[in-house]
From TrEMBL:
Any GO molecular function: protein-L-isoaspartate (D-aspartate) O-methyltransferase activity
Family per similarity comment: Belongs to the methyltransferase superfamily. L-isoaspartyl/D-aspartyl protein methyltransferase family.
Single GO BP term: methylation
Species of provenance: Thioalkalivibrio denitrificans
HAMAP family attached to this UniProt entry: PIMT
Keyword Plastid: no
Cellular component, GO, one term: cytoplasm
Protein's recorded name: Protein-L-isoaspartate O-methyltransferase
EC number(s) per entry: 2.1.1.77
Major subcellular site: cytoplasm
């Protein structure tokens, strides 16, 4: 159920769904997603669906992880990438081999701790985690040439736009909780932020503050 064959089938599904970046497909095929979900769920880990990870949160659907990663990498290599919403740590693990360093913030301490354990068991060493409210980004580590939000704000917080380097891209689901959200890509140009609408998505809401 967690075999390479099962993973390969997921990769084929993502290809059929339109994921073209081979680096992304390769990383999805080699990342053990079953380690990022509860053991009771591990038999479903290579289905193309979101799954519960506790605390009312979910690990994103593999297609969405692939699509966001692809959208982030398009247009140039990304060295410093900020993720808002570590959750299980899966998206961070997918980004890790594709960029120089991942900085990921999570507002729920329990999730952040679990993600840290899994990432360290997998010997992924270029991911830095912090327990904090991602509405403020991680200013000490910015600017970033990539930012990815895995929870949906109603509007992209100003603080995050400010931490984007010129030439950098921010990929985020934007919209109200319970409504259809839009996956957006915002590119920072020298004199403006350029917005693109990629597709409709459904994410948990981005919430303010932190919790245990
Ligand atoms: N990237 C994760 C997806 C987890 S779901 C994965 O691969 O598993 C989204 C996560 O965003 C949740 O864990 C939620 O707690 C977190 N989140 C929501 N609002 C946040 C905020 N303001 N700051 C940081 N994390 C936030």
């Amino acid at each position: 159920m967690t075999s390479q064959r099962t993973r390969d089938r997921l990769v084929r599904q993502l290809e059929e769904a339109g994921i073209r970046d081979h680096r992304v497909l390769e990383v999805i095929g080699s990342t053990p997603r079953h380690l990022f979900v509860d053991e009771a769920m591990s038999s479903r880990a290579y289905e193309n669906t979101a799954l519960p990870i506790g605390y009312g949160q979910t690990i994103s659907q593999p297609y969405v992880v692939a699509r966001m990663t692809e959208a982030l990498l398009e247009g140039g290599p990304r060295s410093r990438v900020l993720e808002v919403g570590t959750g299980s740590g899966y998206q961070a693990a997918v980004l890790a081999p594709l960029v120089e360093r991942v900085y990921s913030v999570e507002r729920i301490l329990g999730l952040q701790r679990r993600a840290r354990e899994v990432l360290s068991a997998l010997r992924i060493r270029n991911v830095s985690l912090k327990h904090s409210d991602g509405n403020w980004g991680w200013p000490e580590q910015g600017p970033f040439d990539g930012i990815v939000l895995t929870a949906a704000p109603r509007e992209v917080p100003e603080a995050l736009l400010a931490q984007l380097a010129v030439g950098g891209v921010l990929v985020a689901p934007v919209g109200a909780d319970g409504e259809v959200q839009t996956l957006m890509r915002i590119t920072r140009r020298a004199d403006a932020y350029e917005r693109e609408y990629l597709e409709a998505v459904s994410f948990v809401p981005m919430l303010p503050g932190t919790s245990r």
